[in-house]
Amino acid sequence: xxxxxxxxxxxxxxxxxxxxxxxxxxxxxxxxxxxxxxxxxxxxxxxxxxxxxxxxxxxxxxxxxxxxxxxxxxxxxxxxxxxxxxxxxxxxxxxxxxxxxxxxxxxxxxxxxxxxxxxxxxxxxxxxxxxxxxxxxxxxxxxxxxxxxxxxxxxxxxxxxxxxxxxxxxxxxxxxxxxxxxxxxxxxxxxxxxxxxxxxxxxxxxxxxxxxxxxxxxxxxxxxxxxxxxxxxxxxxxxxxxxxxxxxxxxxxxxxxxxxxxxxxxxxxxxxxxxxxxxxxxxxxxxxxxxxxxxxxxxxxxxxxxxxxxxxxxxxxxxxxxxxxxxxxxxxxxxxxxxxxxxxxxxxxxxxxxxxxxxxxxxxxxxxxxxxxxxxxxxxxxxxxxxxxxxxxxxxxxxxxxxxxxxxxxxxxxxxxxxxxxxxxxxxxxxxxxxxxxxxxxxxxxxxxxxxxxxxxxxxxxxxxxxxxxxxxxxxxxxxxxx
Length: 483
Hints:
The chain is an alpha/beta fold. The protein has helices spanning 2-26, 265-304, 306-313, 329-343, 360-368, 385-396, 413-420, 422-429, 442-451, and strands at residues 41-42, 49-53, 58-61, 64-65, 69-74, 77-78, 89-90, 98-101, 110-117, 122-132, 140-144, 148-150, 156-163, 173-181, 187-188, 195-200, 207-214, 223-232, 234-244, 318-324, 348-352, 371-378, 402-406, 432-435. The chain has 3 domains: 30-132, Immunoglobulins (Immunoglobulin-like, Sandwich); 140-244, Immunoglobulins (Immunoglobulin-like, Sandwich), CATH 2.60.40.10; 314-481, Toll/interleukin-1 receptor homology (TIR) domain (Rossmann fold, 3-Layer(aba) Sandwich). It is globular, with a radius of gyration of 29 Å. Residues 59-130, 139-243 form the Ig-like domain. Interacts with host IFNA1.
């Protein structure tokens, strides 16, 4: 009897796991945008509202490609969650883009935020999940496309999705469809060139949607469309307008010179000289002032959001993980570490590295999980091109995008390409590099601080117990390093 009970339980678990696998893997791979670009972007419409029912399977998604890392939060609390926060768990086979619960509970309701990042950008998308006790009687719109501006001949894609009410009577109608609004304000069927694709959710059968697509937009496709949702005797309508967008206009740039007098060469020369001087001055001013203004703006935004920022800061034990090899130890301990910690108030975690870069990932991956950012100090002249490529690959494989402080100028990229291959050039160009010049050079510290997250406010800082020898930063010589 016990053996039979165990087998029944295992079969039930496998069945539920199979449902989770099917539902988690398929949603983000069907009805995706038709784009071949590789940068970080959503692969289908980001739905802001989700509904589920108690004791039923439920999944939510964040369909994106081109990202390097993905993090989930519920009401500001980072995943993984305790049972009192949420029962939803990650589905790794869907590249962590899916959360699901086999038996949803009312406590799972809340705001779920996925935060995606690559080397240069960060995306966030919040889904408000509501777990209901029973099916609703009235429709609830979950997503409707915004108004579109489309060039003639381009592709059009509209989407509408809603939670419909469960049919109470045999002849009750529950449906969702697109209709065209004609100039006389009447609604009619779509044109033959317009395709409608109905969708259903595998986790919640009461959630239905519909895509309206046009392969090549023509004059007849412009205008207003309405997504009509019938749920028993209730009708809900959402309108979307497709506007004509000009692909280009004749601005007279191809017109010929029509002047009848002599060309004013002297005036043109003076104007060109003045323009060049203005450009040089603007470039110099931009290079000197823009980084400082950007840094000041970041601090201003942080002061305007103290509560949210404090929560993000305190998620990690340290703000900056600084790593270096023995050859750069004197400069790092005497200048870089004390300046970051004492002047700019960062919580710094120092980790010396071995001379050979082949093991850097294993040395740093555990420590990186405790920190908000990573700074690696390198002397390119101390490494061969192949070692430099290995070092950068080891650092870029970590969950924190590295900021590399170069203590020496990089050799010419053309020569490096011959010795280390084009992979080294590509890796260097895809890495955030900050060149060290002098401890008192303000531009260096501004560039480094722009590449790092803001430090905690003074009231957020806490003394760190059990400070190691490496984290004391050789304080006897640190005061001379402040800038």
